[in-house]
Design brief:
Structural class: alpha/beta
CATH class of the largest domain: Alpha Beta
Number of strands: 26
Distance between the termini: 57 Å
CATH architecture of the largest domain: 3-Layer(aba) Sandwich
Strand content: 15-25%
CATH superfamily of the largest domain: ANL, N-terminal domain
Radius of gyration: 24 Å
Strand order of the largest sheet: 2-1-11-10-12-13-14-15
Helix content: 25-40%
């Protein structure tokens, strides 16, 4: 069923699916649609009692739980604007977002509440605890009101945590989000017999739109995992929930492949040799795929992977292992999906064809057919909140959005993402160098956990985080001869990478990064923090 607003979606499902389970916390409470509606009404009463009216902003800073979606939909159904905030933001960023968005209310989980400055809290009309929907702080007692939103009305402001810039408030209307849900259904229909396991932050548009709003619309039960999806927390949940659908970021499946599949094959001399031969390589991957499917509960029919680029070697494994994965591409500004491919329709390193109802063109196309992806979609944002300059830069007057991603379309309409426009490096002879492709090769190396390629003085430099456990395992004498051995290792890494990339993508040096790279919630490195010269950054 199609809805014009999230308010219509909310009221219809609360009424028509009242006795069905909407969501639950893994190992905890279950919430029916009827109970969902009761809690939403309670929230609306509290917001109105604190003087809030249609169009007012309500910040939502919380870990994943059933009440997260209750808070979200209660707010937008009342004609107010929800401002989901990523838990990974620093205290200063949280303060900036609440102030910049002009939020009058805050719904917050216990641990995250401690990150907020007292001055920020005191500026709000009301602060509500997400766990039990109790009032933490309410200095304002005035009579507000609810309203019925129109499709073109603002529904949500999502502050990006991008790789190339500081946070910007993306404005999405009810029409934007409802259009996105229609596109999700046209790509991959789900139904009330499905069960989804939610492991990514709900405050990110990827999980929010596809992992929360979409299953809510279709009557699908969602089980929330409130802790990071490490092996120790994820595996028990997978075995117990046995999901039919879930969303992950590439890093999760890449770690599983690198640490559980490739590492085991490499540990055995016999398997290492067999893995080099094409026939036995595929056979071993197929066997590993059967085991992996069992680990995921044995019922998975849709493993959505998005939010960042998927490593080619890992994706080749997924194909050969017959894992039912889907791939997608999008941005917060497009709510998010632009392109996608369902299980059985994926192509290696492609994000899939452009979704129905979306127009895509490439601008500034080079001799290889690569250019900036420019999109026109019913789910494209209204603009950036209180940032007309950035809006004019991103959106044309006739509604085309500049993604700042470089891509290529094949004859069948499948889209291939090459790089962010801002991270692409132009070589000395004018060649386009895509750091992400070099990093993908670097990250396959057994001694490397993460990497970033930058240009310094006209040379390509690889900044890497070494796998210390693997280093100690391989080199017992590392502590006694650290400097000399590390230089050997860096040369080994450089030789390895340069043997697998084009000549103009050769790196000139390898530098060890002492601390973890700062990342977005989808585990992409915040490149803008590392683009300046190291000396300047270290001052």
């Amino acid at each position: 069923m199609t809805f014009r607003t999230l308010s219509e979606l909310f009221h219809y499902n609360v009424e028509h699916r009242a006795d069905s389970i909407c969501s639950e916390m893994f190992g905890g409470e279950q919430v029916s649609y009827r109970e969902f509606g009761r809690r939403a009404e309670k929230i609306q009463t509290m917001l109105v009692g604190a003087g809030l009216k249609p169009g007012d902003k309500v910040a939502l800073l919380s870990s994943n739980m059933p009440n997260w979606s209750v808070c979200y939909l209660a707010t937008v159904a009342a004609g107010m604007v929800i401002v989901p905030i990523l838990p990974d933001f620093s205290s200063s960023e949280l303060e900036m977002i609440i102030k910049h968005s002009e939020a009058k209310a805050l719904m917050v989980s216990d641990k995250l509440f401690s990150k907020l400055p007292k001055e920020t809290v005191s500026s709000l009309n009301i602060v509500i605890r997400t766990k039990n929907l109790g009032v933490i702080f309410q200095p304002v007692h005035e009579q507000g009101q609810t309203g019925t939103p129109a499709p073109e009305d603002l529904a949500v402001i999502i502050y990006t945590s991008g790789t190339t810039s500081k946070p910007k408030g993306v404005m999405l209307s009810h029409r934007n989000l409802c259009a996105q849900l229609d596109m999700c259904y046209s790509l991959f229909p789900i139904n009330p017999s499905d069960v989804m396991l939610s492991v990514l932050p709900l405050s990110h548009t990827y999980e929010c739109s596809i992992g929360m709003l979409y299953p809510f619309r279709e009557g699908v039960r969602v089980v929330y995992l409130d802790r990071p999806p490490t092996a120790s927390t994820l595996m028990p949940a997978l075995q117990q929930v046995r999901p039919t659908a879930m969303l992950i970021v590439p890093l999760i499946i890449e770690k599983i492949y690198k640490n559980q599949v490739a590492a085991r094959f490499n540990a055995s001399p016999i398997l290492r040799v067999l893995y080099r031969w094409r026939f036995t390589h595929i056979l071993l991957n197929r066997m590993a795929g059967k085991k992996l499917n069992r680990l995921f509960g044995g019922r998975l029919r849709f493993l959505g992977i998005g939010g960042a680029r998927l490593d080619m070697q890992t994706e080749q494994f997924l194909i050969e292992a017959r894992i039912k994965y889907a791939i997608g591409y999008g941005l917060t500004e497009t709510a998010p999906l632009i392109a996608g491919a369902i299980p059985g329709k994926v192509r290696l390193q492609s994000t899939g064809p452009v979704l129905e109802g979306i127009q895509v063109r490439l601008e500034g196309v080079n001799q290889d057919g690569e250019g900036e992806i420019v999109v026109k979609s019913p789910s494209t944002m209204i603009g950036y909140y209180k940032n007309p300059e950035a809006t004019r830069e991103a959106l044309t007057e006739d509604g085309w959005f500049h993604t700042k991603d470089v891509g290529k379309l094949d004859p069948d309409g499948y889209l291939y993402i090459k790089s962010r426009l801002n991270s692409m490096i132009v070589g000395p002879s004018g060649e386009n160098i895509y750091p992400e492709e070099i990093e993908s090769v670097l990250n396959r190396h057994v001694l490397i956990t993460d990497s970033l390629v930058t240009q310094q003085g006209g040379r390509l430099v690889a900044r890497v985080r070494f796998n210390r456990d693997e280093l100690e395992k391989r080199y017992n004498d590392l502590k006694d001869n650290w400097s000399a051995k590390m230089e050997e290792i860096k040369k080994e890494v450089m030789t390895y990478v340069n043997s697998k990339v084009s000549r103009f993508s050769h790196i000139s040096s390898v530098e060890e990064e002492k601390e973890d790279f700062k990342k977005t919630p989808t585990h992409k490195i915040k490149r803008f923090l590392y683009n300046s010269d190291r000396k300047k950054r270290d001052k």
